[in-house]
Amino acid sequence: MIKRFYAILLLLLVTITSFGQPFINDINRFKEIDKENPPHQNAILFIGSSSFTMWHDVQEQFPEHTIINRAFGGSTLEDQIRYFDDVVLPHNPKQIVIYCGENDFASNDTISANLVIQRFVKLYNLITISFPDVKISYVSMKPSPSRWHLAKKFTIGNKGIQKFLESKPNTSYISVWDEMLLDSGLPNLSFFLDDLLHMNAKGYKIWQRAILPHLIKQHKKQ
Predict the structure, then answer these.
(1) What is the pLDDT of residues 184-206, one digit of tens each?
(2) How many CB atoms lie within 10 A of CB 161?
(3) 39-214, superfamily in CATH?
(4) What is the pLDDT of residue 40?
(5) Residue 188: CA atoms inside 13 Å, Cβ hemisphere, count?
């Protein structure tokens, strides 16, 4: 009975800890990877949410560059800020590519575009304080069919982040929005999986073509 009691207590503690620290399993996995394989210096760091997480062949798509993918699915810009010390600081990247923002809107109907822009600015400031010479690139929020009701907020958020980056040196804004629409202005479903949120290989090919010109050229693999 005593052993069973402690087993239940341990399970409760793990559950409570995980609830209080969302994504902690992802963060711990990153730490283990970095411990076993010390982070490559001067690589290109991809951070953000599941659209990057599920890009399993991202390194193969950019063979002339060293890519480190530290995106974790379901995350918001707030989560990127919360885990900045764990996800970004262990690395010394020459460039950081960000895809995040969709989940901020999807997680709460009251979230405004201005708030999401403010969150991005806070993340930008964290990055530049730690890595003043790093190039920062932001991939625009995509026109996810399952979140089309949020399209107006996405476009306002995209434009606000674009305007902010245009005022900063060593940055780039990477638009994927228009390339993922039909002539009718609606999302092209052929770029998405059945969940109408995440992308298939055709969708990632759009991204590969859009992102490649923005990657710094010093990152050739030796």
Answers:
(1) 999 999 999 999 999 999 999 99
(2) 23
(3) SGNH hydrolase (3.40.50.1110)
(4) 79
(5) 16
